[in-house]
Amino acid sequence: MNEGLFKISIRGLRVETIIGVKPSERAKPQQVVIDVDAWADLSEGAAKDSIECTVDYKVLKDELISYVSNVDFKLIETLADKVAKVCLQDHRIRMVRVKVEKPGALTGAEAASVEVVKERRSKLVDVYIAVGSNINPSGNVKEAIVKLRNEFGPLKVSTVYLTKPIPDNQPPYYNCVVWVKTALSPIIIKETLRSIEDELGRTRVGDKYAPRTIDLDLILYGNLIINSGGLRIPDPEISSRPFLTIPLFELNPDLVIPGLNKSIREIIKGVNGKDMKPLLEFTEELRKLAEG
After folding, report:
1. Is the distance from CB of 241 to CB of 201 less than 8 angstroms?
2. CA-CA to 72 of 20 to 30 Å: which in 18, 32, 47, 223?
C-alpha cells in the first residue's frame, strides 16, 4: 500500500435492488448489504481541515444508494464490480475494496457474499465535454471533433441529436457529448475549449441564447465540484437538459453526478427527450473522425 493514503470505510450499507436469476427473485427488490473500503490521497483535506478537499463519505453513500437502487442485477459479483467502478469515478480514490452480501440467499446460511478489489491504474481523469452548434452545424461540429481529438487523443462520441433552439426563432442545434481521458487541469481544458471556439469563429455577445458556430462546455471532470474562477462543474443543467442527460447516459450508464449525488440512471427517469431527433448517419461520420 502506498504511504500517505487515507482509508475511508462504509459498513453495512443496506440498499434494495432487483438481484437474482430466478423469476421469483426478480419480482421485487431485495436487500443487499454493502461494505466499502476506499484508499485515497486526502492530504490536502487533512491539512486544510476542509470537507471540500476530501472524499465525503456521506456523498459517496448517497451516490451508491442512487446507483444500486436504480439498476437491476443477476449476480452479486456484477453488483460488487459495478459498485467498485462507481467509487473509482472519484479521481482521488486510488484503490477500493467492495463486499456485497445477500442475506437469505442460501438455505441454512445467513448470507452469501462476494468481495472485489480494484485499483486505479491511470492518473487520467474522465472528462465530459458538451458540443453544440446551430450555425453551419454539420461543418462546425466536425471541425470541433477533429480539433478535440488532436488536443485530447481518441474520443468517445455520443449520438448527435437535432434539438430545438431557445428561443425558437433561430436554427435548430446539433448537440452531442464527448468523453475523454486526460491529466490536464479543468482550467487548462477550459482554455483549450475557448481556443477551439475562437478558431471556429465563435462570437460572444450579451445574449447567452444567441446562435453560435460552436459551443464547447466542460460539464464533468471526474468527481470534482467547482464553482469559482468562471468554472462551474458539474454543469448545473445536466439534470434539466435532455441533450446533456441522454448523451451522458449513453456514454456511461454507470455514471454518478457529483453535487447532485445521484446516478445518471436515476436522473434520466425524469427527462423527456421526445423533441430530440437522432442524426445517426452524421454520428457515424463523427465517430470515425473521433478515432483519428
Report:
1. no
2. 223
Q: Is the dihedral of CA 58, 59, 61, 62 positive or negative?
A: positive
Q: What is the Cα gyration radius of the chain? A: 21
Which is nearest to 196 in space by CA: 183, 212, 182?
212
Q: Evaluate whether 127 touches 258 at the Cβ level (below 8 Å).
A: no
**Cα–Cα distance for residue pair 131/243, rounded to 1 Å:** 10
Q: Crossing angle, helix 57-69 and helix 76-87, to 10 degrees?
A: 140
- Dihedrals phi, psi of 255, to nearest 5 degrees: -70, 145
Place of cell 473521433: 290
User: Closest Cα partner for 223 from 85, 102, 108, 115?
Assistant: 85
From first to last of its 292 residues, the chain has per-residue pLDDT tens of 455 789 999 999 999 999 999 998 899 999 999 999 999 988 888 888 888 788 889 999 999 999 999 999 999 999 999 999 999 998 889 999 999 999 988 888 999 999 999 998 888 999 999 999 999 999 999 999 999 999 999 999 999 999 998 777 889 999 999 999 999 999 999 999 999 999 998 877 666 777 889 999 999 999 888 888 788 999 999 999 999 999 999 999 999 999 899 999 999 999 998 889 999 999 999 999 998 6
Q: Does 49 qualify as catalytic in the annotation? A: no
Residue-level length of the chain:
292
Instruction: Identify the CA nearest to 222 among candidates 52, 92, 43.
Output: 92
Which is catalytic among the residues 92, 217, 235, 265?
Answer: 217
Among 35, 90, 215, 235, the one annotated catalytic: 215
212 belongs to the catalytic site: yes
Q: How many helices (H) and strands (E) does the chain have?
A: 8, 15
- CA 167/CA 207 separation, integer angstroms: 11
Whether 215 is catalytic is yes
Task: Give the C-alpha separation, 27 to 13, whole Å.
Answer: 22
